Amino acid sequence: AVDKHGLTTTISRRVNPKLVYVDVRSNHPGLKVLIDEFSVTTPGTITTWENHKLRLDAEDQWPFLFLDWEDNGSRQHEILIPAATPTNPVVHVSFLEVVVPSDPIPFIATTRSCSPTNVCSRCEGDCDTDDDCLGTLECFNKEGPGSPVPGCVGVDDSRTAWCVRFDVASIAPNTLSPVSPAPVSAPATPSPVSLAPVATSAPASPVSSPPVVTNPTTSSPVAVATSAP
């Protein structure tokens, strides 16, 4: 602003986002998911902020195949982060553990372009998606030329994707055990940011040392920060 004497004044205000801590879990602890393109090992906790659209992605991690997210979103989707609450919001992903079939069969040597209207049978390719495969068969993309294909006998030095069958080993239940104590920070801008007060049911009195939650798996304490209302 410029006054009548030609003097100028600049006023700046710093606006920090309200932080939200989100617990990330899976039915098979130790598997990884991508949060805003950052790898997070489950169970874990990330730091984000209110009204941020968090990008979720879950890749297959052999022998674990992506099954679903708890919110029924697709493998890759976004969620809107709600306002901070005394309890951390949770994103939960489920994986299906599979095993190689005990009845392997030879590759079908002649490959073709599989499609939903011209599906390929077991150990036949080249497929692009599961819809290109017969029935419950799945399209399997190899790690590289010459790498093994589950349930198929022979050596394939091409980059062909094959229709294969997986047998289910287990579907672990969705557990809500305490998360690991080491948070993984998602990218946040602007940075640094300050933690917004979170309303709790504690009485209006000086706050004592933060309570500690013990992770039954690691026996490592997890400090939970609270503040008076």
Helix content: under 10%
Radius of gyration: 25 Å
Separation, N- and C-terminal Cα atoms: 38 Å
Poorly predicted runs: 175-229
Oligomerization state: single chain
Output mean pLDDT: 77
Estimated structural class: mainly beta
Along the chain, the helix and strand elements come as EEEEEEEEEEEEEEEEE
Q: Categorize the overall geometry.
A: elongated
Main β-sheet description: 6 strands, mixed
Binned strand content: 25-35%
Number of distinct helices: 0
Number of separate strands: 17
How is this structure best summarized?
The chain has strands at about 20-25, 30-35, 40, 45-50, 55, 65-70, 75-80, 90-100, 105, 125, 140, 150-155, 160-165, 165-170, 185, 210-215, 220-225. It is mainly beta and about 230 residues long.
